[in-house]
Amino acid sequence: MAEAKRMICGVDEAGRGPVLGPLVVAGISVENPMWLSDIGVKDSKKLAPKRREELAGKIRQFCKVEVVQIAAARLDAMMEEMTLNEIEIRAFASAIEKLHPDEAYLDAADTREDYFGKEVGKLVPFSVKIVSEHKADANYPVVSGASIIAKTVRDSEVRKIGDELRENVGSGYPSDPVTMAFMRRWMNRHGQLPPHTRKAWETAENLENEKKIKNLDSFTKE
C-alpha cells in the first residue's frame, strides 16, 4: 500500500506596515519543500523584483497557492473591532484551511511566536502541525515561497492603484519618499486622503493633521 503524501505549507504576509494598499497573506503547499531551495527560492526581501516574479511563476506552476487580500477600507473597518495581529491570525488560518496541509510553517506576525501559532491553530477546523517562528521566511523554503507570492501580489496591487489614480504612488510604505510625496500632492489637490489609504494608520492621521495645520496657517495669514 502506497504511503499517503504529506503536504507541507508555508504562510507569510506582505504589506503589514504600508499606509497605502492591501495587506496580503499567501500560503503555498508542496510535498517536497526542498525543491523550492533547488530553484533558488529565498526570503523575498533578498531577491530583486524581476527574480521574485520569475520564481512566483514557478511556484504557482508546481505548488498549490492560496492568497488572502484585505483592502485598505476593509482593514480600517476590521481595526475598529480587533488588532492587526488578530486580523493576521484570521488571514493565516484562512490560507491554511484552504490548503488543508499536514504541517504548516508560519512567519509569526506577533512578538510571541508560539502564541501566534496556537491562535492560528484554534481557527483551523482540522488537526494540523503548526510551527510558528520569527524569520521563518528566511529559515524555511516553503515560507520563503509564500513570502515571494505575497510580495509579488501586493506589488501588483500597488501598481494597479498607481494606474487607477494615474500617479506614481511608490511602494505604499511611509518610509518611501515617493509614496509620501504622492499623498501630500493628492491632499493638496483634492483636500482629502487618496483612495486605498489605510485611514486607521498613524501615518494617515499625521497627514490629515499636517493638512489642518497648513489650512489654519493660510487662514490666519489672510
Structural class assignment: alpha/beta
Rough shape? globular
Radius of gyration, in Å, reads: 20 Å
* Percent range of helical residues: 40-55%
Give average pLDDT, whole number. 93
Percent strand: 5-15%
Q: Write down the secondary-structure element order.
A: EEHHEHHEHEHHHH
The major sheet is characterized as: 5 strands, mixed
CATH class of the largest domain: Alpha Beta
**What is the name of the CATH superfamily of the largest domain?**
Ribonuclease H-like superfamily/Ribonuclease H
Please tell me the total number of domains: 2
The CATH architecture of the largest domain would be 2-Layer Sandwich
Query: Quick one: how many beta strands?
Result: 5
Quick structural overview:
By secondary structure, the protein is of the alpha/beta class. The protein has helices at residues 34-38, 49-62, 72-79, 84-99, 113-123, 136-139, 141-165, 177-190, 202-221, and strands at residues 8-14, 23-30, 64-70, 103-107, 129-133.
